[in-house]
Amino acid sequence: MPKWFNSAVLVCGVMFAISPLVIAQAPYESTMGLVQKVFYYHMPSAWIFLTASVVCGIASARFLATGKSRHDRTALAAAEMAVLFGLVTLVTGPLWARKAWGTWWVWDARITSSLVGWMIAWAYLILRQYGGPGSEKLAAGLALFGMANVPFIYVSVNYWRTIHPATTVVPKLPFSMGFPLLFCLAAFYLLMFLLMKLRVRVAEQQARLDAIYLSLDEQA
Amino acid sequence: MLRVIAVTVVIVSGFGQSVVDQTVALSAQEQPKQQEEFTPIDQLPPQEQLPAAPLLVGAYVFVLLTLFGYMFMMSRRMTVIQREVDRLDNDMKRSGRS
Amino acid sequence: MMVRAVWLIVRKDLTVEVRSRELAYTTLFFAVSCVLVFAFSLVQEGRAAEGVGAGVLWLAIMFAGNLALGRTFERERQSETLRALMLVPAPRPAVYLGKLTGIVVLLLLTEAVLVPLVALLFQAELLAHPIWLVSVVAAGTLGFAAVGTLFAAMLVRARSRDVLLPVLLYPITVPVIIAGVRGTMAIAQPDFDVEVVRFWLSLLAAFDVVFITLALWTFEPVMTD
């Protein structure tokens, strides 16, 4: 791992540690009160989930076009990020909804399409794990279809009258709420970058290990 | 004989009546007044609302455990694989193979 | 060249099918059994819940389509004709389109039996507006089959292909199924609103275009080693 990695992890840890303090400075929201503060972790997770799906799709397209393994490793790491942060989004959302809307789950457009997008990312990992040799290319094909789902998720909330807050909420945030949100977004994106770096490195070393064993077998 | 019975009946019914009267008076005191209609309110009184703090704290704890748990698992996997790669590298160098 | 290749592939599949009738009969029988099972489970005292018929129709199409897709490519794999198809001196997308046409024809034939059956068992007025119904069902079937043909072809040489096909196919086709069910429900409604049906139909058409385009792009890279 590069030398700056450990310091960056420390910085990220500190940012997460002080985030509750930053969030506590933000004012309460008028209709939802205390539970709205889940927003400062829920929304960055959702953005990372969508970002990771797009990264996976782009890396998969490059892998299909060029055949270079490093794009495939990036796609795998991005898919794991999508499953991870998607899980966080899909758990924090209902915890917020239980108090704000009175129900754990609602079948509205954005929530349903997010769940489906998350299942596609999970299906990608299942295919990589159990598909046998050659499943890297197949998974890349799947990821392209998954990426096509992303704009649908983001935009759906504006076209269907749903109970989920619209995309106009974020641009209209006052600074007292916008700053904690930006702080948390920075912390989450830094964490995603570090986790992807780590995961890609693990995949690289695994590939190197496999190559060494293969050459040992051939020489034996 | 008939007179004895008549007197007994009068006395017993007198007692009975006072017992019934007392029971009615007592029950009127213990039971609340019967509700004639339901009155709606917009918001539950604060002590009956769902508490937000456990949901909020639960959400934050879940997020931090999941994300940093994954980071911890990946770091461990990294050390195991790195150790194996270094071991094999050393073995190969020692036995003089390229 | 492309059109001729597509036609040749479709003709090959049709000839094999007419001789054995294996896929047609098994797919049809499975689809009808599905609908019957749903009827036993969901119809209480002779009445089904409102709008259930539309959902059951699309569920049966999904399950039967899944089997048909798996079986079509399994047949190719067993007779090793897939390799021969890949060696055909025609553009690779022609193989995809040929297979897609075959699957769509098979599913449409199955649906021709399923729609009246569901309308009967679930008291759904599906046949009230036949042209709209045919459009919605055809558009949805095309979207489902477009993704399914690509994935089934992709998985032919993979391990655990039988279970991986639904695992991959169902999440991707959820939007198509939602639009199909909603469109069908809107058709079966007593107070028929043409704008609602038109909305879902245009959504289905958009999905069809996106999925077929993506599939045509990815078919060649994923099928070559």
Describe the protein's architecture and organization.
- The complex is a heterotrimer of chains A (220), B (98) and C (225).
- Chain A is mainly alpha-helical and 220 residues long.
- Chain A contains six helices and no strands.
- The two termini of chain A are 32 Å apart.
- Chain B has one domain (2-27, 52-94).
- Chain B is rod-shaped, with a radius of gyration of 43 Å.
- The N and C termini of chain B lie far apart (132 Å).
- The model of chain B has no long low-confidence stretch (mean pLDDT 76).
- With 225 residues, chain C is mainly alpha-helical.
- Chain C has one domain (2-223).
- Chain C contains eight helices and no strands.
- Chain C has helices spanning 2-20, 22-42, 52-78, 81-86, 92-121, 130-154, 161-188, 194-223.
- Chain C starts with a helix and ends with a helix.
- In chain C, 44% of the residues are buried.
- The interface between A and B is medium-sized, with 38 and 28 residues.
- Give the topology string of chain C: H per helix, E per strand: HHHHHHHH
Mean pLDDT of chain C: 88
Percent strand of chain C: under 5%
Radius of gyration of chain B: 43 Å
User: By helix and strand content of chain B, what is the structural category?
Assistant: mainly alpha
Q: How far do the termini of chain B sit from each other?
A: 132 Å
Low-confidence stretches of chain B: none
Order of helices and strands of chain B: HH
Q: What kind of assembly state do the chains in view correspond to?
A: heterotrimer
How would a crystallographer describe the biggest sheet of chain C? none
In short:
Helices cover 79% and strands 0% of the residues of chain A. Chain A has 220 residues and is mostly helical. The relative contact order of chain C is 0.14.
Task: Tell me the layout of helices and strands.
The complex is a heterotrimer of chains A (220), B (98) and C (225).
Chain A: H1 4-25, H2 39-66, H3 69-100, H4 109-130, H5 135-159, H6 175-219
Chain B: H1 2-30, H2 53-94
Chain C: H1 2-20, H2 22-42, H3 52-78, H4 81-86, H5 92-121, H6 130-154, H7 161-188, H8 194-223
